[in-house]
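Worked example

This section walks through a single chain of length 101. The input is the sequence exactly as stored; nothing has been trimmed or padded.
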Amino acid sequence: MLNSANSKHEQFWRYLEKSGVLDTLTKVLIALYEEPKKPNSALGFLKHHLGAATPENPEIELLRLEPLKMKQKYEAIAEENKKLKAKLSQYEPPQEEKHAE
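Given that input, the structure is written out below as tokens.
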């Protein structure tokens, strides 16, 4: 039975290693260690850094990207609008001629 427990333990550690959990935890703990002014809540520090590194839900990541996509779309539309206005102005008579008629 002791051998079975060791085997499960080793399997679990391999799983943590393969999935990147050990690497991520190590990096966050090193960041805490290297922090010149230790935070009041070490657990809060860990939660903050782990939450920022890996979002809990893929939908959160999509929501974070949405404003960037909207900004890019806005800029493309604004540029297109500018070009179309320039093109349109070629076909419109100057303002002075309109008032003279």
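What to look for: The mean pLDDT is 85.
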